[in-house]
Amino acid sequence: MRTPPRPLLWLLLGLALLTLLLAIAVGSGPVGPAAALTLMSGQPDPAALEVILYLRLPRALAAFGCGAALALAGAMMQVLLRNPLADPYVLGTSGGAAVGALLAIMAGLAPLLVDFSAFAGALLSTLLVFSLAGVHGQWSAGKLLLTGVVVAAGWSAVVSVMVVLSPDASLRGILFWLMGDFSFVRNPLPTLAVAGTIGLLAWLLARYLNVLSAGEREAALLGMEVPRMKLGLYAASALLTSTAVTTAGVVGFVGLVVPHMIRLLTGNSDHRVLVPAALLAGGTLLTLADLLSRTLIAPRQLPVGAITAAVGVPLFLVLLRRRAGT
After folding, report:
1. H helix intervals, the chain
2. Which of 59, 69, 115, 274 could crosslink 240 through cysteines, CB 3.0-4.6 Å?
3. More confident residue, 134 or 121
4. Does any domain span residue 141?
């Protein structure tokens, strides 16, 4: 059953708002929905105010921003590849960003340089995978996936060496961050700003994305500057991925699951619908995953990446099998 685009966007917006409300009202501590409602009374409990405004709300907004960024990065990579199996995690972009961030952290660089290093690592990994897998600008799904897996494995090996060389005092924090962790997020605004700005630009350029997704030759015949557009998509997907990685670590499969589900629901790949829908659905998915990660076995927490992988791995295998049968 196909869902019309406009009702789908309103539905996703409602789900996003509901998920954010749940994320700030539900937790492992004594501050529950009843305590959260006191914020609307004008005389909130100081302890509840502290927990909600300074712990849960920044974490929920950061999760939403990261999910939106990863979903949009996945959609852009799928335009570049013209294949629904493309994803920042599968293709090694997240691993490159993680290596760049860890190198900067271990060198004691300033936060801004950590962000830049993560972006450089993500961009390098993206260009490396596409250049190794492509012949005259053409890619096969099998070759690109194999190249992405190999590059991701290489980044994983580098990360393992860096973890071994890290001080014991910071080892657990690094491992948890590598699997996805929003525990230490205090300022979600940079993540939201990057996802929102690139999302707006992608929506404004939606008709160009539609043309490019049909094929580079067709896009060139229609007068599009294909190399410049591709370079912009490389940079945008790397920036989105690196922002998510520096915020919460490596979280996989959001960029795979969300665009594919939007296409199934709408029955088309029009980026005028896909871009805003991916932003909303990706943010909602990762906010729910973070909520589950901190409540399922409370007071202990699960890595957010484990929750998203539980959804993404089966779907990835189903998609891979379908494409192998076509």
Report:
1. 5-25, 33-37, 46-51, 57-81, 93-106, 111-133, 141-165, 171-178, 189-204, 206-214, 216-221, 226-248, 254-266, 271-295, 304-324
2. 69
3. 121
4. yes
* CA 256 – CA 323 distance, rounded (Å): 14
Four-CA torsion 213, 215, 216, 218, nearest 10 degrees: -110
Nearest to 311 by CA among 98, 19, 82, 87: 87
3-state secondary structure of 40: helix
| Tally of structural domains, the chain | 1
Give the distance from CA 17 to its chain's centroid.
19
- Bigger pLDDT: 90 vs 23: 23
Q: Report yes or no: 129 and 144 within 8 Å, Cβ to Cβ.
A: yes
Q: What is the pLDDT of residue 109?
A: 83
Give a yes or no: residue 93 inside a domain.
yes
Nearest one of 310, 220, 308, 214 to 270, comparing CA atoms: 214
DSSP 289: H
Name the residue type at position 270. Answer: D
Q: Which residues contact 21 (CB under 8 A, 6 or more apart)?
A: none
What is the predicted pLDDT for the residue at 138? 58
pLDDT for position 73: 94
Per DSSP, what are the bridge partners of residue 135?
A: 138
- Rounded CA-CA distance 292/159 in Å is 27
The pTM of this model reads 0.88
Establish if 7 belongs to a structural domain. Answer: no
CATH number, domain with residue 215? 1.10.3470.10
Residue 3 lies in a domain: no
Q: What average pLDDT does the structure give for the chain?
A: 84
pLDDT digits (tens, 9 = 90+) for 240-264: 999 999 998 888 889 988 998 888 8
Backbone angles phi, psi at 238, to 5 degrees: -65, -40
Mean of pLDDT values over 156-160: 90
For residue 88, the enclosing domain spans 61-318
* Cα dist from 58 to 65, 124, 200, whole Å: 10, 30, 22
Q: Is 102 in contact with 159 (CB distance < 8 Å)? A: yes
